[in-house]
Amino acid sequence: MQTKASHAATPWADGPHYREGLQDLPVDVRQALIDIGTMRSWRRGDMIQKQGQTIGQVVVCLKGKFAAMVAGPSGNDTLLRFLTQGEIVGLSTVLADLPAPNAIVANGPAETLHITRQDFINVLTRYPQGAVSVAVLLSHRLAELIKYVEMTSHRTLNERVIYALGRLARSNGEPSKTGAILLKLTQGELATATGASRQRVHLELKRLEDIGLIELGYGQVIIKTNKL
């Protein structure tokens, strides 16, 4: 196990911590989308977007916790990450009229805002600066996708665990005053994010904890970025 060699490229220290959502759009564009959208409520386990389905609408995550999941050929789901409040999903599906590349599942009571394809396109046509902002969001997601493919193809479990912690920390981590990052995540969820068993992921986490990079807690992982 080449644990120490993996530390040179610790992914939670790489790249900007950006939020891709409604709050990133110009104020007038944001208000226009809110005005024409339809609110919906969900319970835990409800599927908001089904993988492979052409939904014909943009969805904004307003309240609650949402998981972006991808189903593999063997039927096992992979957790990509948790979505942030205000995040916009379904952009590629709506703009290119393509099937959804992943599923979105509510992890508890949740609320979403739904905007039909035609209404969304009408707003972008009316506000060109909104179209530019959406292009920036899609560029971030393309870069994230390329990185995801590179870091999950032919990588050791150690590397996959470190990368999963990094991408989840960048989108859902809570910085502390000490410089560490609190990530509310169970080891079962991390196993789903890495495509490995919970037992194997637990061993990798213990190794990272033993060398002081992380600290394990109940339903959470503290990433000690000050020790990198």
What does this structure look like?
Helix 1 (27-36) runs antiparallel to helix 3 (117-126), helix 3 (117-126) packs across helix 4 (128-152) and helix 6 (187-194) packs across helix 7. The chain has helices spanning 27-36, 91-96, 117-126, 128-152, 157-172, 187-194, 198-210, and strands spanning 38-42, 47-49, 57-63, 66-71, 77-83, 88-89, 103-106, 110-116, 174-175, 181-183, 214-217, 220-223. It has a four-stranded antiparallel beta sheet with strand order 1-8-3-6. The chain has seven helices and twelve strands. The protein is 39% helix and 24% strand. Mean pLDDT is 83; it is low at 1-19.
Question: What is the rounded Rg?
Answer: 18 Å
**Order of strands across the main sheet:** 1-8-3-6
Estimate the global geometry from the Cα principal axes: globular
Tell me the fraction of residues in β-strands, as a range.
Answer: 15-25%
Helix vs. strand class: alpha+beta
Q: What helical percentage do the residues reach?
A: 25-40%
List keywords for this structure.
24% strand; 12 strands; 228 residues; four-stranded antiparallel sheet; 39% helix; 7 helices; disordered N terminus; alpha+beta
Write the layout of secondary structure elements.
Blueprint: H1 27-36, E1 38-42, E2 47-49, E3 57-63, E4 66-71, E5 77-83, E6 88-89, H2 91-96, E7 103-106, E8 110-116, H3 117-126, H4 128-152, H5 157-172, E9 174-175, E10 181-183, H6 187-194, H7 198-210, E11 214-217, E12 220-223
